[in-house]
Amino acid sequence: xxxxxxxxxxxxxxxxxxxxxxxxxxxxxxxxxxxxxxxxxxxxxxxxxxxxxxxxxxxxxxxxxxxxxxxxxxxxxxxxxxxxxxxxxxxxxxxxxxxxxxxxxxxxxxxxxxxxxxxxxxxxxxxxxxxxxxxxxxxxxxxxxxxxxxxxxxxxxxxxxxxxxxxxxxxxxxxxxxxxxxxxxxxxxxxxxxxxxxxxxxxxxxxxxxxxxxxxxxxxxxxxxxxxxxxxxxxxxxxxxxxxxxxxxxxxxxxxxxxxxxxxxxxxxxxxxxxxxx
Amino acid sequence: xxxxxxxxxxxxxxxxxxxxxxxxxxxxxxxxxxxxxxxxxxxxxxxxxxxxxxxxxxxxxxxxxxxxxxxxxxxxxxxxxxxxxxxxxxxxxxxxxxxxxxxxxxxxxxxxxxxxxxxxxxxxxxxxxxxxxxxxxxxxxxxxxxxxxxxxxxxxxxxxxxxxxxxxxxxxxxxxxxxxxxxxxxxxxxxxxxxxxxxxxxxxxxxxxxxxxxxxxxxxxxxxxxxxxxxxxxxxxxxxxxxxxxxxxxxxxxxxxxxxxxxxxxxxxxxxxxxxxxxxxxxxxxxxxxxxxxxxxxxxxxxx
Lengths: 278, 304
Known about the structure:
By secondary structure, chain A is mainly α. Chain A has one domain. In chain A, 73% of the residues lie in helices and 0% in strands. The radius of gyration of chain A is 22 Å and the shape is elongated. Chain A starts with 22 loop residues before the first helix and ends with a helix. Chain B has 2 domains: 2-217, Rossmann fold (3-Layer(aba) Sandwich); 220-282, Alpha-Beta Plaits. Chain B is built from 11 helices and 13 strands. Chain B is α/β, with parallel strands linked by helices. Chains A and B meet through helix 1, helix 5 and helix 6 of A and helix 2, helix 3 and helix 4 of B.
């Protein structure tokens, strides 16, 4: 795309500029928008602190209570999964950023300026998803690897076993942690487009992660086993574990399902964006 | 060139814009007048494609807004209130919009200078005064150096110097051959700035004509008169003359429209009444505007 330097305010642009605005400009614009508000830094900071801090804490707790743990707990202990426990808290902060990337445009009214510049609305949905997705993937993978390393370092100081990236299934689980955060975050972006309000969007996102499992817990076991594997929270547990939980899809199947959720939310969001008044 | 054909928009049961047709031509400032809630902002949003019309359509240089190849190069808009994230700096807000069109950072600096915000551009917009916010909105509109400019209530929140600056800017832009469409709820402001005027009330078109014609057409002169017996004079004027209206002012003097001062004096003399006061008064443009839009309100109330 050509960069244009217009003359100082003078005659209006009469020579038609070739081509048309497109995705590249939208991506640049969305990146600028994302990096120039404080909420981005704060939510990413919270993602890192929660993921690493709670992961370390969870490993320390096991390490210091190893002797009191039941034999079954010791036999089924998954050091990789334990060190990634914090991601289940970090996901809340990263998801809130996903909702905010969209809902802040509505709460501030800047969506009107955005859509005036980019009237082909699906481009905005795609641009935001790509920029947010890239940030979430980078932060998610860094956080996942860092949480793993910190957690294993804590475990190695005590009686509990620890794992290495070279052990079977470990690398897949650690990479899976970052992928899970990214796909879940994109689901939050989609919810932002559908709901448009910050409070409502965050409430829905948190409800899906925390309330749905509670509702499920109240159902008979047969229901739980049949439905549980479809919940995003359980998908996260599956993806970050080396030892696979019972009644769950495989880790990659689970990831595919979560990606499908995110895609549906984004497509519905884009469809609503095109249909609704700004 | 903006062309609106039978634009109609309702929100739920509220009819915001009702079968509105008009065109806005380049090279002049067109004032878009109506009281608050008359559908001005809605019309602006329909032009920008932000809201979809229920019926009718509006085109920009013959095309719908959504079909423009480079919207910011064709249309610049100062949108209602603020449409800016308060946590972002003015510079970054402009930059983000510029990037969608591959517009250079140099141009961003240029428009900031044009509106006089170059020294506060790195401050968060939330700390801006209302006037600075308006100036930033105008900078946004100018970003793509467009041939068509839409300004929704641009003088809101501006100090007298800022108001004068906007007037000069609007006239200058029109003089360069651009299409300038400015909404306002202040007739007096538009009388100073606009070459053409479109008046709407309750979403309906009430008038569309050159400003000068609108003033001539609508500024009816009123004769104020006091005599020894105002009741008798009122009866005389009310019966013998076509198209004459007589009303009473707050201080009980008679206000006569449809007759000039000389004829009123002659009539008083013929009736044998001593004239105590006789003066010509001009209804202000603001009064005319109020009366015009008031009628539309009453008309709507009568048909519901």
